[in-house]
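Morning run. Coffee first, then this:
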Amino acid sequence: MSSMDGIKNRSARSKKSRPPQLASDMQFTDIESFAEACGWDQSFRQLSAGRLLGRVRTLVGTGCIAMKLELNQAYHQIGRTIPGFVTFGLPDPTSGDFRWGGAATRGGEFLSFDHPGGFEGTSGKNFSGCAISFPRERLEDLAETLDIPIDLDRVLDGRSVLASDTRSTA
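And here it is:
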């Protein structure tokens, strides 16, 4: 099948799919409930004094899950995302200090959550960012349909920050 045939077939399938739906919009004052709402295996350690005011908004579409995360306190987090999915993060450039997988970031970077040992990050106060997860098989099928020779394992390659230039992220 040619790339164009694949695009036409995908276009026909997408007409049958439902548009993304807001699945949840929750606010939290305790980090355990916040972590549970994300649906990942993760833990947090608060690094700043004060009461948490956190928010998680989840949008679910055909073949993807997107979350907008907001925290008003500084945290160290470790964990793993949903098995079988590839997850990327985009920290808000206005969030200030943020370290991901040991690398300092400025915000606006394209981050990978998919490391063999899990992910690790440290945020300052007033952090916000987005995470988007795709079934690994769906990304591989899409690359094949578009005739893009990509090896996800090689692209992710254990790196935390995949693109650090804000323009290339956009």
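Residues 1-12 have pLDDT under 50 and may be disordered. Good start to the day.
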